[in-house]
Structure formats: structure tokens, C-alpha cells
Amino acid sequence: MYAIVNIAGQQFKVAKDQHLFVHRLQGDEGASIEFDNVLLVEDGGKITVGAPTLKGATVSAKIVSHLKGDKVIVFKKKRRKGYKKKNGHRQYFTKIQISGISL
């Protein structure tokens, strides 16, 4: 059984006991959260598609940890002008574990 769910503006294909890195969510570590923007559910070969979402379908998850991603270097340069800018960025993520999918 799997589902396609909208979490923080992105769509993810999730299954039970799967770990997932999503953009930073509100909540403490160990807290449980539910997502109700379920777009599709597959259960034993039977596919149910929402228009746009399924009514009453939820995906429950548990927040495992909050962390930061790898550093991305942004470097800008204009040749022969002496212009150089170096900047770094680390995205904030939340690691969640899917605990169940219910229709």
C-alpha cells in the first residue's frame, strides 16, 4: 500500500515505515502529525484517485529529527571586472517516518 501526498508544497510517494526528508515542518521531535492532502492511494492493486484530493484519507507520520542539508556554494563572477561574490546556503529539513495510511 502506498499513497501520493502533498507535504509542504511538494508531492511524495510514501509507504508505511518509510523515512522521508521534507522541508522544515512545525513541531517538536517525537511529535506525530497528519497530512490530509492525499492525492492517490493504492491498496492491493486498487487505485483510488482524488479530484484533487481524497476526502477522509490521511497519512500519519512521526517527526524523527530536524536537521540541515549539505552546503550549496553560490559563486558569481563577471570576467575582467573584478566582481566576485561567494555565498553558501544550507536548507533546513525535517526527517519524518510514515506510521500509517488510512482511507
TrEMBL record:
One of its GO terms (molecular function) is rRNA binding. InterPro entries: bL21-like, bL21-like_sf, Ribosomal_bL21, Ribosomal_bL21_CS. Keywords: Ribonucleoprotein, Ribosomal protein, RNA-binding, rRNA-binding. PROSITE patterns: RIBOSOMAL_L21 (PS01169). It comes from the Bacteria. Pfam families: Ribosomal_L21p (PF00829). The keyword Cell membrane does not apply. HAMAP family: Ribosomal_bL21 (MF_01363). Part of the 50S ribosomal subunit. Contacts protein L20. NCBIfam families: L21. This is Large ribosomal subunit protein bL21. It comes from Pedobacter steynii.
